[in-house]
Automatic annotation (TrEMBL):
The lineage of its organism: Eukaryota, Metazoa, Cnidaria, Anthozoa, Hexacorallia. Residues 40-302 form the G-protein coupled receptors family 1 profile domain. GO terms for molecular function: G protein-coupled receptor activity. PANTHER family: G-PROTEIN COUPLED RECEPTOR, PYROKININ-1 RECEPTOR. It comes from Pocillopora meandrina. Its main location: membrane. GO terms for cellular component: membrane. This is G-protein coupled receptors family 1 profile domain-containing protein.
Length: 365
């Protein structure tokens, strides 16, 4: 659809007057959340790569979410800038703003759907592992897991392509706004299908599966063998803990994204119920800040409640500490040797007599 055939005021339907203080506040908040999301998800990915015990089927899907959350965190800022949310001044050219707008909306949609599909796969994996434990080997095969992970990306890449076609930069006065510009019928059909397939259906499926998982874990019968009973009790507690962590991740995701779904639904079907969005407060909150919280909260949940991820983080921290500590010690010893030429001559002479190289001197010092 040609952008010139659309009235910008009808698309926006909002008061453009805005205080710089409000814009600055949202910019600072989004900066903090984005930085936390980037660091947290990066650490989750590195922990998974470096820790053998974390390479389970469930963790593969969790890391898949972490990768998509990194995408979301990276594309939030270009989209935020293209929409004129930083200040009233134009920071980027019109052509670049159009490209950033299209790609930002596209990859944000991809990231959201990848996370939803990963959550569904996690719930299926937990369901089979607990309710049908003998069949989990099928889902745990490398080929099956790789196929599922690939589908979580192919589906949103294909389904989200309308964003590339219909997303445009709308200019009003000295501000720019990133909006999907299409007919009402296309907008209603696209959003309705997306809402049902990638929001309602996943919630329904995960609710059923996790309800069955919780029921199975609680009703697992006791055995006559005390040793076996202790092992079952330990395994049951482990399943309960993992299930609580995963349900927390699911709840956090949908709590953060639900306000945007409600806002878009009301704006589409009952626009009279939404007050004029002065300073783009609703857009900043529901479209940027809340979804960003979703990308930042998963690492917090994992490192707070998962002993395996917490141990992996501790090991990584110790490795980083010892690495820099060793570097500083070598540097400190080198500085002391430079400060005393007589002492340096003695070290070199001793090393020469022993047949040692310069690198050996540094290590032994």
């Amino acid at each position: 659809m040609n952008n010139s055939s659309v009235q910008p005021t009808k698309i926006l339907n909002q008061d453009l007057s805005c205080s710089d203080a409000v814009t600055t506040l949202f910019t600072v908040l989004l900066s903090i959340v984005t930085l936390a999301a980037f660091i947290g998800n990066f650490v989750v990915i590195v922990s998974f790569i470096k820790t053998t015990s974390l390479k389970t089927s469930t963790n593969y899907y969790i890391v898949n979410m972490a990768v998509s959350d990194l995408f979301c965190a990276c594309f939030n800022w270009p989209l935020f800038a293209a929409e004129g949310m930083l200040t009233s001044r134009q920071f980027i050219s019109d052509h670049l703003a159009s490209v950033v707008c299209k790609l930002g909306m596209y990859f944000r949609g991809i990231s959201q759907v990848v996370s939803v599909l990963s959550l569904v796969l996690i719930s299926v994996d937990r369901y089979v592992a607990i309710v049908f434990p003998l069949k989990i080997i099928v889902l745990d095969r490398r080929g099956v897991r790789l196929a599922f992970l690939t589908l979580t990306w192919i589906i949103p890449i294909v389904c989200g392509f309308p964003y590339v076609i219909y997303t445009e930069v709308v200019k009003v006065d000295d501000k720019t706004f990133c909006r999907t510009v299409w007919s009402r019928l296309l907008r209603v059909v696209f959003n309705f299908i997306g809402f049902v397939v990638f929001y309602c259906a996943p919630i329904f499926v995960m609710t059923i599966l996790y309800a069955r998982v919780i029921k199975t874990v609680r009703n697992r019968p006791d055995t006559a063998d005390k040793t076996q009973d202790q092992m079952n009790s330990k395994r049951q507690k482990q399943h309960q803990k993992i299930t609580k962590i995963l349900i927390s991740i699911v709840a956090a995701f949908f709590v953060c994204w639900t306000p945007l779904c409600i806002y878009l639904s009301l704006k589409m079907f009952h626009p009279d119920l939404i007050a004029k969005d002065k300073c783009l407060v609703f857009v900043a909150l529901f479209f940027y800040l809340f979804p960003s919280f979703s990308t930042a909260i998963n690492p917090v949940i994992l490192f707070l409640f998962s002993s395996n991820y917490r141990q992996a983080l501790t090991n990584m921290s110790l490795q980083v500490y010892y690495f820099f500590n060793k570097k500083f010690r070598v540097l400190g010893h080198a500085n002391r040797r430079v400060g005393s030429s007589h002492g340096l001559d003695n070290v070199v002479l001793t090393a020469y007599v022993r047949g040692e190289t310069a690198s050996t001197i540094c290590v032994k010092s």
